[in-house]
Amino acid sequence: MESQLAGGQPTGGQTAESPRAQPPASAAPAATVAFVGLGAMGSQMASNLQKAGHALRVFNRSAGRMQPFVDAGAVACRTPGEAVRGAHFVVSMVADDEATRQVMLAADGVIGSAAEGTVVIDSSTNTPAMAREVAAAAAARGVRYLDAPVSGSIAQARGRELVFMVGGNARDLDSALPVLQAMGRMNRHMGASGAGATIKLINNMLSGTMSAALAEAMAVAEASGLDPATTLEILGEGAAGSRLVKTKIPKMLGRDFSPQFQLALMEKDLRYFLALAQEMDCPTPLAGIVRSQYQGARRADLGALDVAALFLHVTGGRLPPDATPSSTGQTGEAGSGSSR
User: Fold this and answer.
1) Which residues are CB-neighbours of 337 under 8 A, at least 6 positions away?
2) What is the domain count for the chain?
3) Residues near 254 by beta carbon (within 8 Å), at least 6 away in sequence
4) Do 192 and 213 share a domain, yes or no?
5) Of the residues 200, 248, 251, 268, which is catalytic?
6) Which member of 42, 64, 97, 308 lies 3.0 to 4.6 Å from 130 by CB, making a disulfide possible if both were Cys?
7) CA gap 269, 292 in Å, rounded
8) Which contacts (CB < 8 Å, 24+ apart) does range 239-245 have?
9) Angle at CA 230, nearest 5°, toward 226 and 234?
10) What is the DSSP string of 158-204?
11) In this structure, is residue 47 part of a structural domain?
12) Model confidence over 92-109: pLDDT tens digits?
């Protein structure tokens, strides 16, 4: 998502827990990488792997999304299992637990088809429980699984500026560095399996809550007749100043709801966060209210738009005729046409 996390992954004599920036993509040795899920985020990540010289085997449910990669030398595959055969690494970027279960644990999925020692980098935003379930299935077959969701949206994916939050074995993370360095600028080992998924949900709860607060604040600012440019300047310099302020305020006030991160996916992530909080016996009433706002916006057919479209839900506004959910571009996170 849009908010940033500090930290990265060292090599050499440093420990896995120490942060560092990634070296240029050209420093990474070539490998065969299976990429599962070529949505708005996955396609950018896979493109950077290809630019770094890695050989790709790709799978996506919508076959048309594979063609640009095939044109650049990748192998198109009919199933996730076919994609991982012969691959040293697997990267998956799909929408949710259900999609992850399908691509990872189905009969012709990643885990059942990968060779012993294959490193699986799962960048989907899943529940920690899902990550641990896949990790256990992988371990039983000698496959090395990392839950490695990302901070950053489409622009960061395109520019190799993603931050990876990684759960799993630190030695497996060391092995995965050549692939991660081709897609992002930093990574952080968070702990055992499920830890990456946990911090990702916390990250997105904060981002979603801040975006909801911005929607209400901009509704009041606009109704009060404040100048949009001056409003952005002042808020960007104040205590609330952040990348979200600088990117979401222009989208809200400019009615630009082309998706950088899909509203429906944010609602899903908040739902996952609330389930995690309940499991931890932690009261999170604010997150519950915010999730209800996103749920209402999704039910009002705004789910395919950027999270900035929550502004429409707050103000009771409507999309202009030329900006329907189906015409706002790619969605945010999965090979099915969603992401993350």
Assistant:
1) 39, 62, 330, 331
2) 2
3) 228
4) no
5) 200
6) 97
7) 12
8) 242/3, 242/210, 243/2, 243/3, 243/4, 244/2, 244/3, 244/207, 244/210, 244/211, 244/214, 245/214
9) 110
10) HTT-EEEEEES-HHHHHHHHHHHHHHEEEEEEEESTTHHHHHHHHHH
11) yes
12) 999 999 999 999 999 999
Decide: helix, strand or coil at residue 298.
helix
In which residue are the tokens 């630009």 written? Answer: 256
Q: Which residue bears the tokens 């002042």?
A: 234
Q: Is the dihedral of CA 299, 305, 307, 309 positive or negative?
A: negative
Same domain? For 219 and 186 the reply is no
Of residues 329, 276, 275, 270, the one with CA closest to residue 298 = 270
Segments in the chain below pLDDT 50: 1-28, 326-340
248 as an active site residue: the answer is no
Residue 40 belongs to a domain with what CATH number? Answer: 3.40.50.720
Is 10 part of a structural domain of the chain?
no
Q: Is 76 helix (H, G, I), strand (E, B) or coil?
A: strand
* pLDDT, tens digit, 9 for 90 and up, residues 263-288: 999 999 999 999 999 999 999 999 99
Using the structure block, give the residue that is written with the tokens 């199933």.
Answer: 79
